[in-house]
Amino acid sequence: MTGPAAPPGWYRDPWSPWAVRWWDGGAWHGSTVPWTSSPWDATAAMARECTAARWARVGMWGLAVTALAGTVEVTAVVRSFADLLGRAGTAGVRAPLAYGALFPFLGVCWLLTLAGEAALMVWGHAAAEHARRLGLPARLTPVWAVVGWLVPVGALFLPYWVLRDCLPPGALAARAAVLRWWLLFVLGVPTGMVLGLLGLAGWAGAAAAVVAGAGYGAVQAMRGRVVVDTITAAHEQATAAIWGRAPAA
User: Fold this and answer.
1) How far are the Cα atoms of 3, 52, 74 from residue 64, in angstroms, in the given order?
2) Pairing state of beta strands 19-23 and 9-12?
C-alpha cells in the first residue's frame, strides 16, 4: 500500500490490479477508474484540454474585468449625481457627463468579459469531457460547461458544478480552491458596485474605489489560473496513470 508520505494522486488500486484509485495523501478514496495499457484517445484528449487551458488562463483576466467595470460604472454614476447636486443652485451650469464619457471603456470591459466566458466554456467542456473519459463521477454532462453559462440563475452555480466534478471526490483541497475562485467571480459585480459607493467621498474616494476594484479583479484572475492549472495537472496525472504508467501501490 502507498506510504503516508506519498503525494495525492492516482495510484494502482491495492485491492484490484485492474484499476487505479485516488490517494489524498493520507487515505484511499472510493473513486476508481480502469487501468489499461491501451492509449485510446487519451493523448489527443489531453492535448485538446491543454490547448483550451492556455486560452482559459488568459480568459480569467477577461472575467476579472467584471469587478473593475462594475466599480468604474457605479463610481461614475455616483460622481455625476454628486456633481449635479453640488451645482444645482448655480444657474447655467450643467453636471459633467462622466458616465456617458465612459461608454467606450465599459463596452470594452464587457466585451473582454464575454471573451473570457467563451474561453472558459471551451476549456470547461474539454476538461469535463476528459474527466468523464477518465471515469470521474459527475453530476452534470460536459455540455453543461457551455449551456450552464447561458441559463438564467443557473449560471450562478452550474459552471461551478461542472468544474468541481473535473476533480476526484477525494481531492477536497483542490475542490475548495474551485469554490473560492467561483465565489470571487460571482461576487465580483456586487463587490464592484459596493466599492463604487466610495465615490461619495469625493474624487479621492472614487480613485480608491477603482484601485480596489482592480485589485479584486487581479486576485480573482490569479485564483482562476490556479484552478485551471490544478484541473489540468490532475488530468495529466490521471491520464499517465491510466495509460499503463500507474505508480506501484
Assistant:
1) 41, 18, 17
2) antiparallel
pTM for the structure as a whole: 0.76
Query: Helices 42-86 and 103-133, interaxial angle, to 10°?
Result: 150
In the DSSP assignment, the letter for residue 246 is P
* CA dist., res. 249 & res. 236, Å (int): 19
Residue 214, C-alpha cell as written in the block: 482592480
Query: pLDDT tens digits, residue range 178-228?
Result: 999 999 999 988 888 888 788 777 778 878 888 888 899 999 999 999 999
Q: Are 67 and 190 in contact (CB under 8 A)?
A: no
Name the residue among 37, 63, 186, 206 with its Cα closest to residue 123: 63
Count CB-CB contacts under 10 A for residue 27: 10
Strand partners, 23: 9, 28
Ranges of each domain in the chain: 42-242
DSSP conformation class of 2: -
Pairwise CA distance, residues 59 & 29, whole Å: 33
Report CA 217 to chain centroid distance, whole Å. 12
Helices (H) and strands (E) in the chain, counts: 8, 3
Task: Compute the Cα dihedral for 114, 120, 121, 122 and give only its sign.
Answer: positive
- Report the run of H or E that residue 11 belongs to, with start and end: strand 9-12
